[in-house]
# Entry
Amino acid sequence: MEITRARRFVASLVTGAVVALGGAAVVPQSSAAGTPEVAAAVMAGVDRVVILGGKTYLTGKSPESAGKAGAPATVAWSKVSGPGTVTFADAHAPVTTAAFSAVGDYLLKLAADKEPVSQSSTLMVRVIAPPPETRLEPVEPLIHTINSRFWNGRVKAQIVNWIPHCINKLNDPKLKEGGIHFFIAAANKLAGKPPGEPPGPVAVDAWTYNVLESICLALMIDPQGDAEIVAARKAMLATLDDWIPKILAAQEPDGYLQTTFTLSGRERWSPEHRSDHEGYVAGYFLDAAVVHYLMTDKKDARLYNAAKKLADCWYNNLGPAPKKPWYDGHQAMEMALLRFGRLVSQTEGAGKGDKYIALAKFLLDCRRDGQELDQSHLPVIRQYEAVGHAVRATYSYAAMAGVAMETGDVDYQSAVTSVWNNLVHRKYYVTGGIGTGESPEGFGPDYSLPQQSYCEACASCGEMFFQHQMHMMCQDAKYADLYEESLYNAVLGSIDLEGKNFYYRNLLNSKWARYPWHACPCCVGNISRTLLMLPTWMYGKSADSIYVNLFIGSTVTVRNVAGTDVGMVQVTDYPWSDKVSITVNPAVAKTFSIRIRVPNRSVSDLYAGTPEADGITAIAVNGSTITPPMEKGYAVIARNWQTGDKIDVVLPMKIQRVKGIDKIAATRGRVALRYGPLIYNVERLDQDLENVLSPQSSLSTEWRGDFLDGVMVINGTWVNGSKLLAIPHYARENRPLDTSKDRSVVRSAVWLKDQ
# Structure
């Protein structure tokens, strides 16, 4: 239950003759002339979550002046309702902290009295138990095989078409948005030669690093003899041989690496240059270096060593005095330092990477006294709602979750859980996309989810990163439910079926076709690296458990569970089919748990689907039906596993009608269709988009192997008797409609009229 639901339940407990307006209430008192005077509203703050044993930071606002001049205002915090006691550090200060004695939902009130006006405002606090003390470990991609009717085509399109397209663009010496020529120019300058190139845009290196990482991920996928994939891999290996020396030649002697700064000579880590993407670019280099090192089975350390030199450069210059404080206007370094620090500790010995994790926390802790755009408006431990630029936000929140895991910092745990709650239950699209564009490339107010969405492709990737980090911290299946939703709809829907065109901005009501490039090509490699990181999304692990999060036909090795490596083989036609077969192949027979996600299609309180399609219909081990215990959204099967042990799962795959809650104005009187994890879409090519779908209209699925690379369509009838044809959202806009450039015409839509 979203905390706002509890708020509605207890709102009647607020005493006094008040007029409530969005959590604030004013009690007018008669002035000397008998006319009520209205003061500036008291604001208690945003609803939030706090971890039991921690505290929440209250930043209330009271009127600076009201009523009789010179009369001081009396301010007081109090508990209206809740299961335990609330201890305020200073109940008579608008800015204070509160601690709670028990889990549950609390309603707090901030009252301000200043004659002739009394005002109050409330906020909800949900107190929850702490997350587990130990976190899950990510399953980093290694050599693996994809055997899936759904995913084989999507993966091949990336390897054969999209990544080579990006490589060709970045190899073009005339490409002003970025490319390898900027590394050559920076290397020339460092070598005392004419650079032959002016400085590029500030984020110019980032696209190259993302594509380099995508290449490495593609090289970890077994081509299974496919001649086109084999040829593409050969070309990608040649690209690595060409690019890596050129990139390394652009690294400065002390480890700094950013071609725009090298070519321009501008000051590093300057407050004036917060918008110049130093951390954004550096973080992407660390990520690429991690994946390259893993792809070579840690045998080629060129990028790893360069990344360590870069991270050391940052660590040697940024930090507590006598080093300098700093933060970047676009987060990415924080996430990457956490990932890199873990790899260093795994590679070089426990604790060896801790300084990089400490630097990630320091960079986050420096965020304050800035703006919502880049989440620097408040210290991160006092941020309780999703605001600002959606990509920067999700990168920041993913890093906060990572720090919370690594340090056990309760303030971090409370803040990131609050932000998650606000994002998922107030600012989340049914497709798993985020960002309305009402702020620059960012979030709008609560429940404002217009169909002319922004939903930048990079924000969808960031949403997956954030949910994945929350999953590792909390070990709850709901986070995997959400990143599955984002993967199948928002991220996959950003690129066409051929892998030749993409969307930067993803509207729920599409008005134009995809395109091959963008003036800001930040999404081109981000989409690829996210889509090709399937083993990481599919599995998680602890010392004694494997978490099965996604159902994809594949063969993946999960290393070091209960002291052995475990081969996991999935055979499934999901999301087209309801059956999943998982064969468990430990190198040595061992006792551990397999935890299988029990799908929940309604994690977000913003939407409800009927009929219900949550849960697992049946589950069997080696042919015998079992009823395993459920823990945090997982069916837990603990046994001594031997090679060839087989789990069979049946999922409830049904067509669902999805409705948004009444608070979302954009979805009132409308319905969306869903099948499994897939949101569906109707296109103007097939029907009039102004048609009405009756709630009583019969709907059915049909497999069409010759249509849109093979899809399960939904057939039905509109109220006027004409045929309804719905296709998966990811497959929209893959057929030419016309040559019109009129962006006022809706070509495809998610939300259909049902009234």
In short: Residues 227-249 form the longest helix (23 residues). Residues 1-22, 24-39 have pLDDT under 50 and may be disordered. The radius of gyration is 27 Å.
